[in-house]
């Protein structure tokens, strides 16, 4: 076998999300796009806002000299400065341009952060259910993922975390608003998490960095505002992506922001810049760095996603499918009507509906439904959900 044995093994455990998405493409080719209802991939349906379109037009028609050349590995200095100003306004802390590392989306930012922080054998503690790529990201850099269960309604369970954080813990990785659950952690719960991490640092004698993965930070509903994670724990870094809030998933632009209070602030700045280069990213895409700098206050219309959430929730209510109402992101993570989530997802697939089994997120007995789709797709699928749920219960 030409490929690495480890990669071959990892591929067998690879993302349920991509497998279902690729299955959906094949089904649409065979049956017609209007006959398949695909809720597998969180692919933003809303186009980038006008602020993004305007910035792009100007850059294409009047590019600054040297826009497409190499740059410092951490990104364009003027861009980093503007984002630091935005972060200071947003979080109330004294960020400097050097605290901001421009990255190729959140995935790039997470890999840069973990490579910068982990030694072989270090542990990354995550909250289950978790994003399916987290174990692979930790493993990429010699780390090992350890999962702490959340509460029944997907909030932080500090007792579970207390038991999971140990001598080898180097990073606690949270995702808020959460993929796959839509749960947003409150300021009060984040403060309690910070107290726990401070106690664990004293107990272990190690700095524990809180990494907050926040590509859905602006996609929150019902008047909620995502609280600042920097207020919870000084040793914190935030990962931002503009894939969702600006509808730029295909452009791979985001940043890593290091807390001004981090005990190893200067070292982490240097490490992240070095790693951004040596992982092969070199630097984030130049044109979209400039776009991002101009659009920090912009967002897609969140009320559109909220309306889709409410439509889906109403249909699941009628089908008798239990769920926790999402506070943000664009996912539902309901219980499957039978304990075997893999079997239920297969039943849906046979009826032209694609969902992702909760087992892939570390929480069996559930399924993830991405509602970043058209209203017509949700309306077309809801009768099928009701029919298949009834069939599963009676079989």
Tally of contiguous helical segments: 13
By secondary-structure content and strand pairing, the structural class works out as alpha/beta
The overall number of domains is: 2
Low-confidence segments, given as residue ranges, are none
Termini gap: 43 Å
If you had to describe this structure to a student in words, what would you say it looks like?
The protein has 13 helices and twelve strands. The chain is of the alpha/beta class and 395 residues long. It has two domains: 5-48 and 300-394, Aspartate Aminotransferase, domain 1; 65-294, Type I PLP-dependent aspartate aminotransferase-like (Major domain) (Aspartate Aminotransferase, domain 2, 3-Layer(aba) Sandwich). It has a seven-stranded mixed beta sheet with strand order 2-8-7-6-5-3-4, sandwiched between helices. The longest helix is centred in the last third of the chain and has 20 residues, at 375-394. The protein is globular and about 60 Å long. It starts with a helix and ends with a helix.
Give a quick rundown of the structure:
This protein has 395 residues and is of the alpha/beta class.
Would you spell out the secondary-structure blueprint of this structure?
Elements: H1 5-12, H2 16-31, E1 37-38, H3 50-61, H4 77-91, E2 100-103, H5 105-117, E3 123-128, H6 134-140, E4 144-149, H7 158-164, E5 169-175, H8 187-204, E6 209-213, E7 236-241, E8 254-258, H9 265-278, H10 286-294, H11 302-319, E9 331-332, H12 341-350, E10 353-354, E11 356-357, E12 367-370, H13 375-394
Parallel strand pairs: 1-10, 3-4, 3-5, 5-6, 6-7
Antiparallel strand pairs: 2-8, 7-8, 9-12, 11-12
Helix pairs in contact: 3-10, 4-10, 5-9, 11-13
């Amino acid at each position: 076998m030409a490929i690495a044995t480890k990669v071959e093994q990892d591929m067998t455990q690879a993302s349920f999300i991509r497998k279902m998405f690729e299955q959906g493409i094949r089904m649409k080719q065979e049956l017609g796009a209007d006959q398949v209802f695909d809720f597998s991939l969180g692919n933003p349906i809303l186009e980038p806002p006008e602020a993004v379109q305007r910035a792009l037009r100007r850059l294409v028609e009047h590019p600054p000299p040297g826009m497409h050349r190499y740059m410092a590995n951490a990104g364009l200095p003027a861009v980093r400065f503007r984002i630091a100003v935005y972060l200071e306004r947003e979080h109330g802390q004294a960020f400097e341009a050097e605290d901001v590392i421009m990255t190729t989306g959140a995935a790039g930012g997470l890999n840069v952060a973990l490579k910068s922080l982990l030694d072989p054998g270090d542990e990354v503690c995550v909250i289950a259910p978790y994003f399916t790529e987290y174990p692979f990201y930790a493993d990429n850099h010699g780390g090992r993922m350890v999962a702490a269960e959340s509460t029944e309604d997907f909030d932080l369970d500090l007792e579970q975390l207390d038991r999971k954080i140990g001598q080898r813990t180097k990073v606690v990785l949270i995702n808020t608003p959460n993929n796959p659950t839509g749960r947003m952690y409150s300021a009060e719960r984040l403060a309690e998490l910070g107290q726990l991490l401070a106690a664990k640092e004293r107990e272990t004698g190690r700095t524990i960095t809180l990494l907050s993965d926040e590509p859905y930070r602006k996609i929150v509903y019902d008047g909620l505002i995502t609280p600042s994670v920097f207020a919870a724990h000084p040793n914190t870094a935030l990962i931002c992506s503009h894939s969702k809030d600006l509808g730029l998933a295909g452009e791979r632009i985001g940043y890593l922001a290091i807390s001004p209070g981090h005990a190893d602030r200067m070292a982490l700045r240097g490490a992240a810049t070095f790693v951004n280069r040596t992982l092969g990213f070199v630097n984030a895409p130049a044109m979209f760095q400039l776009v991002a700098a101009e659009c920090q206050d912009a967002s897609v219309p969140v009320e559109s996603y909220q309306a889709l959430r409410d439509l889906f929730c109403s249909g699941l209510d009628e089908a008798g499918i239990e769920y926790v109402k999402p506070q943000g992101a664009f996912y539902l993570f309901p219980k499957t009507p039978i304990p075997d989530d893999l079997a239920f997802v297969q039943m849906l697939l046979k009826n032209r509906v694609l969902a992702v089994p909760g087992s892939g997120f570390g929480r069996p007995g559930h399924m993830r439904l991405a509602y970043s789709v058209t209203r017509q797709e949700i309306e077309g699928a809801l009768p099928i959900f009701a029919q298949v749920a009834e069939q599963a219960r009676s079989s």
